[in-house]
């Protein structure tokens, strides 16, 4: 029986739920539907099949950053896709998506292979926050010639879906894309499957998230993934507060020293700025390590911990 304010379906934005929906080979039909809808592909341009790839981009050389995306796949034409769900606000998220794309691009070639074997990389990013200063929920970014507008460098395409900007109601949905966006925004609040969601893949996704179809162990893992997300967000807030405090202290000290020569006001301002940056960075690093240790001890999957905290697998092993 559902508790008060509890939906029948789990939250598709949860890391574990999202990967269950789209990160397994058996879920390829749902992933294909999502890709075709968001990219608005029609006719011969529609994706017909995909092969799921390892979501971890491990660096070939030590010292380089490891990346973890939610879903990686390649279609029948060799086009590579990364599909990422980002829940908490990250003003640098666009740079992270660019970094993911570059990893997916360069890892296509093996030693001795030639550049013509490189295929297009398309990044699809679903975000539970507003990133760009526009009203459009969906935005597509490509490399264009500034003078002519021609799309000659075609190997990178980025599509961002800012979920808070999607405001359509059930009776206003008029495409499979609308249904997918509504699903991501509202699935965990629904107490039954709406008749207005006609797309077979969206209906299938709803049934996959029916909480009564999940085993107790699966629900426990789902809750741990939610707690990991909340714990990391809390750790960032704490790191920010610690950084602000340390920044004030260091800033005041440095500011007073510089203020003797350059003026009290200007010195404090510069000192506080440097101190705050240094303090925040120290706070983030220590809190990320601390929360990663706690998550691992709680049995959270290592891939989720890597993605949640930003630490590499090697760094986790050293904790």
What's the helix and strand layout?
Blueprint: H1 15-22, H2 28-38, E1 50-53, E2 56-57, E3 67-68, E4 71-75, E5 80-86, H3 93-106, E6 121-127, E7 138-143, E8 153-162, H4 176-186, H5 200-208, H6 216-262, H7 264-297, H8 302-309, H9 313-317
Parallel strand pairs: 5-6, 6-8
Antiparallel strand pairs: 1-4, 2-3, 4-5, 7-8
Helix pairs in contact: 2-5, 6-7, 6-8, 7-8
Q: Key features?
A:
8 strands; six-stranded mixed beta sheet; 319 residues; alpha/beta; single chain
Give structural notes.
- This protein is of the alpha/beta class and 319 residues long.
- It is 46% helix and 13% strand.
- Strands 1-4-5-6-8-7 form a six-stranded mixed β-sheet, sandwiched between helices. A two-stranded antiparallel ribbon has the order 2-3.
- β4 and β5 form a beta hairpin.
- The protein is globular.
- Mean pLDDT is 84; it is low at 60-67.
Compact description:
By secondary structure, this protein is α/β, with parallel strands linked by helices. It has helices spanning 15-22, 28-38, 93-106, 176-186, 200-208, 216-262, 264-297, 302-309, 313-317, and strands at 50-53, 56-57, 67-68, 71-75, 80-86, 121-127, 138-143, 153-162.
């Amino acid at each position: 029986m559902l508790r008060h304010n509890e939906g029948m379906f789990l939250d598709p934005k949860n890391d574990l739920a999202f990967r269950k929906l789209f990160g397994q080979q058996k879920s390829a039909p749902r992933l294909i539907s999502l890709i075709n809808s968001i990219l608005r592909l029609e006719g011969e341009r529609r994706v017909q099949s995909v092969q799921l790839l390892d979501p971890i981009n491990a660096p070939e050389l030590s010292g380089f950053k490891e990346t973890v995306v939610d879903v990686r796949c390649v279609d029948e034409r060799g086009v590579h896709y990364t599909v990422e769900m980002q829940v908490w606000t990250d003003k640098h998220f666009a740079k992270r998506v660019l970094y993911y794309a570059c990893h997916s691009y360069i890892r296509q070639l093996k030693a001795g292979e030639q550049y013509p074997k490189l295929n297009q990389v398309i990044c699809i990013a679903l975000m539970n926050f507003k990133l760009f200063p526009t009203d459009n929920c969906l935005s597509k970014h490509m490399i264009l010639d500034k003078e002519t507008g021609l799309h000659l460098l075609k190997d990178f395409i980025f599509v961002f879906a800012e979920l808070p900007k999607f405001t359509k109601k059930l009776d206003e949905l008029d495409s499979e894309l609308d249904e997918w966006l509504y699903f991501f925004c509202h699935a965990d609040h629904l107490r039954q499957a709406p008749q207005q969601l006609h797309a077979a893949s969206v209906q299938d996704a709803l049934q996959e998230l029916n909480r009564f179809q999940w085993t107790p162990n699966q629900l426990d893992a789902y809750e741990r993934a939610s707690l990991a997300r909340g714990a990391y967000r809390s750790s960032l807030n704490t790191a920010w507060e610690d950084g602000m405090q340390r920044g004030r202290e260091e800033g005041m000290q440095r500011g007073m020293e510089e203020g003797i020569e350059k003026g009290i006001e200007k010195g404090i301002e510069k000192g506080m700025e440097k101190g705050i940056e240094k303090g925040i960075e120290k706070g983030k690093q220590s809190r990320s390590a601390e929360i990663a240790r706690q998550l691992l001890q709680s049995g959270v999957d290592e891939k989720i911990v890597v993605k949640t905290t930003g630490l590499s697998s090697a760094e986790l092993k050293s904790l």
